[in-house]
Write a structure and sequence with these properties.
Blueprint (H helix, E strand, L loop, with lengths): L2 E7 L3 H12 L6 E9 L5 E9 L2 H9 L7 E7 L14 E2 L5 E9 L2 H10 L11 H14 L2 H11 L2 E9 L6 E6 L4 E5 L2 E5 L11 E4 L5 E5 L2 E5 L11 E2 L15 H7 L1 H9 L18 H6 L2 E6 L1 H18 L3 E5 H4 L10 E7 L5 H12 L3 E6 L5 H5 L2 E4 L12 H20 L5 H24 L1 H11 L4 E6 L2 H17 L2 E6 L16 E6 L5 H13 L3 E7 L11 E5 L7 H19 L18
Helix pairs in contact: 1-2, 4-5, 7-13, 7-14, 9-13, 9-16, 13-14, 14-18, 15-18, 16-18
Bound molecules: fructose -6-phosphate.
Length: 616
């Protein structure tokens, strides 16, 4: 949550910072601000701090009146944690003497104690944020050390919590000090200067070779280069990561919003996630698992831990792991798992699923599981992310950067990756033969073309259903088995992008309470694909129909009977039930987005949300 950027070099900093912030806006959009270094009349440097509530566009308009002279600065886009989303709480935060400015992503847990201590020593606070303590701590340390890097290192020893910070000091023009603990920071050197950001997407125009800073590492950026040091100030040579994904990912490419673009990318995601996964001899190839077949064979319990949409990918995986490998599999919200003392033994496999790879609850659950002796396997979309680094093995979903706050293509990448894992476990446990695995693998690959078919043929049907849902106050998503898990994701998508209340329910449970909600016109969106429970779902729908529900059915192409009870039918191609989540989720994503557009919601940046949830 929150995005930070910094630039020092030969070019105008202001536009580099605002362009970078716009790309980081998915991390939060409550307020935005920059601190730009400016040379005063007397030849001394001053910090020009500009902050605005709301999105980066507001800040950008404010900066139009500023000249282009500044070539060094830092910027921030905020998702409010400590302190309301006001201008006073917007970053950068400055020291009492206004010579030091800080932007921060993370949470400082001991900020209340530090604030009291600093106030007792005469510091005046201008905001309610935790971040501001950093500005004052660095100010004090700078008075002793007269060196920005040394002052930042000293301040970091006082702080408990997570931080990625970038700091400028008017007494050291052109220098940006950067530090990190449990919060992502990437640093890169371009032809025209040095860059820092929370995410590579903000600096990919300048360079594709970046350093993903590790916890406890520091970087000193200047127009001439970047120096890396450890917590003692000793020089280090960090690993350089080459970014190979295309810059087109960061552009809408003719689509009206990123969410739609990312939905349309899903056939590619399926194909890319499967590339190289089947050896010529027909064996599944998941080298990165970090576990031998012998170790996998000992696994007798699986926990999938994740949040939000990633949690729903886990619900799908449960069906597959238990179905194919016959290993008990529990799916838990990471935020619950860590407080529950789950039963973990050395033969427990914990699978942590996270698009961003930096969700605070998922990370905390991983650490907890490891302490208790579990093997942890990560599934993430972000190379080098904390989830990847803290797991014994990792599969990277090949979604590429996902920009819309609502996850779509990364969900599909997660489900495909978890399906591979379930197949592997099935094979190791002797429940699936090599021949069966090969057949399943090819069918899994076919889902790419099946998604494409939905995108090519069902958009009109989705739109009609969206028009019927537009003015509803609430909606129910129902299904059984896989359909129940898919419904959970459908309901989450609808509520987060369209602000229409939605709830998912196992269809068979409707008569135990939720059916009381149904009155004429109430939308019931049902996953009624041809599956072992098809007839049961249809009977449940008849009960809803009898009470006047407006039924939207996600059905298997060729199923004409469903039209007798459904007001709207959206088809998906015939698919094995095990793979139905990969296809049946797609119309639900389209539906949610369509309803949101009809209700004039900000599809890519829904209110109150941020894409990376780095607070607990
Ligand atoms: C919903 C959505 C969120 C995330 C959740 C976990 O569309 O995107 O529910 O799935 O915040 O995030 P990750 O997967 O990054 O751990």
């Amino acid at each position: 949550m929150c995005g930070i950027v910094g630039y020092t070099g030969a070019d105008t900093a202001k536009s580099i910072l605002t362009d970078g912030l716009k790309r980081l806006e998915y991390r939060g959009y409550d307020s935005a601000g920059v601190a730009l270094e400016r040379m005063g009349d007397a030849g001394s440097c001053e910090l020009d701090v500009v902050r605005r509530t709301g999105k980066v566009a507001g800040l950008e308009s404010e900066l139009v009146a500023r000249d282009d002279a500044s070539t060094c600065g830092i910027g921030h886009t905020r998702w409010a944690t400590h302190g309301r989303p006001t201008q006073a709480n917007a970053h950068p935060h400055v020291s009492c003497d206004h010579r030091i400015a800080v932007v921060h992503n993370g949470i400082i847990e001991n900020f209340a104690e530090l604030r009291v201590e600093l106030e007792e020593r005469g510091h005046r606070f201008a905001s309610e944020t935790d971040t501001e303590v950093f500005a004052h701590l660095i100010e004090e340390a700078y008075a002793r050390e007269h060196d920005l890097m040394a002052a930042v290192r000293a301040a970091c020893t006082r702080v408990v919590g997570a931080y990625g910070i970038a700091v400028v000091c008017a007494d050291e023009p052109g220098v940006i000090a950067v530090a990190r603990k449990d919060s992502p920071i990437v640093v890169g050197r371009g032809e025209r200067g040095s860059y820092v950001a929370s995410d590579v997407i903000a600096l990919i125009d300048a360079t594709r070779d970046v350093v993903v800073l590790e916890d406890g590492q520091f970087a000193r950026l200047s127009p001439d280069g970047i120096e890396y040091t450890d917590a003692e100030g000793a020089c280090i040579e960090p690993e350089v990561t080459h970014i190979d994904w295309d810059i087109d990912t960061a552009e809408k490419g003719g689509y009206p919003d990123f969410m739609l673009k990312e939905i349309y990318e899903q056939p590619r995601v399926v194909r890319d996630t499967l590339v190289g996964r089947l050896s010529p001899s027909g064996e599944l190839d998941i080298d990165e698992l970090g576990l031998s077949f012998e170790e996998l064979d000992l696994i007798d319990r699986v926990y999938v831990i994740a949040c939000g949409t990633s949690y729903h990918a886990g619900l799908i995986a449960k069906n597959l792991i238990e179905g194919w490998a016959r290993i008990p599999c529990e799916v838990e919200a990471a935020s619950e798992f860590r407080y529950r003392n789950p039963i973990i033994t050395p033969s427990t496999l914990v699978v942590a699923v996270s698009q961003s790879g930096e969700t605070a609850d998922t990370l905390a659950a991983i650490r907890d599981a490891r302490i208790k002796g579990a093997k942890v396997f990560g599934i993430t979309n972000v190379v080098g992310s904390p989830v990847a680094r803290e797991s014994d093995g990792v599969i990277y979903t090949k979604a590429n950067k996902e920009i819309a706050v609502a996850s779509t293509k990364s969900f599909i990448g997660q489900v495909v990756s978890l399906t591979l894992l379930a197949m592997l476990l099935g094979q190791v446990k002797g429940r699936l033969t090599t021949r069966q695995v090969r057949m399943l693998f090819h069918e899994l690959g076919d889902t790419a073309a099946q998604i494409q078919w939905i995108l090519d043929t069902q958009v009109e049907a989705v739109h009609k259903a969206a028009l019927a849902c537009r003015d509803a106050h609430s909606a129910l998503f129902v299904g059984r088995g896989m359909g129940a898990a898919i419904s959970c994701e459908g309901a989450l998508k609808l509520k987060e992008v369209s602000y229409l209340h939605a709830e998912a329910y196992a269809a068979g449970e409707m008569k135990h309470g939720p059916i009381a909600l149904i009155d004429p016109g109430f939308p019931v969106i049902a996953v009624t694909t041809k599956s072992p429970t098809y007839d049961k779902v249809v009977s449940n729908l008849k009960e809803c129909e009898a009470r006047g529900a407006m039924i939207v059915a996600i059905a298997t192409a060729g199923d004409e009977d469903i039209r007798a009870i459904a007001d709207h039918v959206i088809y998906i191609p015939p698919v094995r039930d095990a793979f139905s989540a990969i296809t049946a989720t797609v119309p639900l994503q389209l539906l949610a987005r369509d309803v949101a557009v009809l209700r004039r919601c900000d599809v890519d940046q829904p209110r109150n949300l941020a894409k990376s949830v780095t607070v607990e």
